[in-house]
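Usage

Read records sequentially. Each one opens with the input sequence:
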Amino acid sequence: MASAFPAVRTINTYTVTPRPNPDAPRQIHLSAWDLPFLSVNYNQKGLLYAYPPDLSVEQIIQRLRSSLEEALFHFYPASGRLRVVTCQGGGITCHVEVGCEGDGAEIVHAIADGIGIADVVAADGQDLPELIKEFFPLNLAVNFDGCTNPLLVVQVTELIDGFFIGLAFNHSIIDGTSLWHFLNAWAEIARCKLAGKEVALSQPPVHDKWFIGSYGEPPIRLPFSSPTEAIVRFSPPPLRDRMFHFSSQSLAKLKARANQECEKGSISTFQALSALLWRCITRARCLPIEQNTTCRFPIQNRARLQPALSPNYFGNSFHPISTTTTAGQLLENNLGWAAWLVHEAVSNHTDSAIRDLVHEYMQNPYTYKSRNDIHRIMISSSPRFDMYSCDFGWGKALAVRSGIANKFDGKLMAYPGWEGEGSVDIEVCLSPECMSALEKDEEFLAVVSPPIELGVLLGGVKHVGLLN
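and closes with the structure output:
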């Protein structure tokens, strides 16, 4: 889709370095959960804010820079760089580590001329505006030619009546849980500084990487002379990208329906919603009845391991799991039947299953490759992530959005709804033909809710008094 908006202009770029941290190691080895993401583009997530009444853009950026310095002190891997170490013996291999010399992160100051909040918060029935992809630092695919790319780049984009903070974070360093942990901690630091309080994080990160002894000790060797052998670039076909809202009331009815139909009583809201999306998108794709179709989603390892990892474990700690059936079975059976397939996939992800997956990875290391596959959907992110608590001292965000990275036909992203109370927003990326069919699907439309009106969003933002 051609963009109707002017390009975003870069005004300045700042390198933000933390003060020295005596507790930071010189290197951190990547785990079996981190290494598969070496071929995945940076994780791009961002927040839209209205302008506080008593701060200029320059003051906002200065306060973001100051608080980021402190955040990088605590989350020191974010200010490092990836390093490749070539190993000899038993064939040429290499391993990848994070050098923790405090090289720093970057903050980009940009401006979108003539663009306002209303242009970003798309009206009902519209695709997400093309300009959103320009609110994130571009061309930050993993590059091992010298490994000089920052692991974290932040772009602050000026709008007429607000601004957007977009993060691009190397995915081999963090998963969604750690990304939102970092963002909330950064916001907490900013609030402490504004109030003149000593910074004491309520949830400090845990940097001790998880490895299985004997066959999973660091460093983990990759069967490549260089990681570039494992890097595959992906160019998605033309896609439509839309946000759909599901109110807490609508989801409660959906969950009750799924439990009634499967007669099990243990289907969660997420499982019911995943089953609905899987069924409706499969129907929109008009797959042959004998064609296999898959619902795939990441699932946390932190709480499922025995003993459990800290919820503040900083890094990647999840596995993508899936459930598969034929298009005919998925659509001939009811929602409860499909939801039970999702439920079983979740229930089977136990401590022993996690350890088996790590063991399999150690036997045959690999990297994830993005690809188009019209026979599956992939649901990432999570409505459980604490996204709207990222208040840097100027109020609640108006919206959460993602960049262009890692999107393909069938990629879905789940976010908490702005109003809370169990509401959910789902970003859906599909081919234009499939999206048009989904927008007419009766089962889908019966559950989708109207979006939150812009006036309600703006009225719900409470600005705090800030000292200039």
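Summary fields computed downstream for this record:
- Residues 394 and 463 are 5 Å apart (CA to CA).
- The chain has eleven helices and 15 strands.
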